[in-house]
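Re: the request from the purification team.
They wanted to know what the chain is likely to look like in 3D before they choose a buffer screen. I agreed to run a prediction and write the result into the notebook, where they can find it.
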Amino acid sequence: MTIFNLNQIRIVTFLSCAIVPLLVTGPFLPDLFLSSLSLWFLYYIVKNKAFYLLKNKFFYLFLSFCLFCIFSSLMSDDIPLSLESSLFYFRIGIFCLLISYLINIEKNFLNYFFYTLIVTFSLLIIYAFIQYFFGLHEHPSRVSSFFGDELILGSYLSRLLPLVIAL
């Protein structure tokens, strides 16, 4: 049983896959997409009374962890600063449920996600080679590709490479 119609599944699949290339732009757009998709998924769960999607032992474990983080934040010296990072952490767990749901109902979701990763990696690496060979990089010994002043190309590639290999 699906809680989305076909057009909504396509939109949600596209937006979910778009998070990977949006990581290059900084934290705002990926967080905006992740939060919006999580809220949208929660809305459709409540609207269609599909609460069975929330009955997952890993999700319960994640919610327990979130509650522990919030409780720990309430015990800190600077409560507002501590709650800033832990209060809305549950959105990541809901997004994971959405991805799990999409994998189950959209047979090509993993292919779309894989190709998104490959295209993003290819563009980053090709532009990094262009920067290196034509001397377009600002730092004398490192290239940044599309990341600008932030020298995080290697971190980005090394953190997502296991996902590419797994897919």
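For the purification team: Residues 109-134 form the longest helix (26 residues).
Please add any questions underneath this entry.
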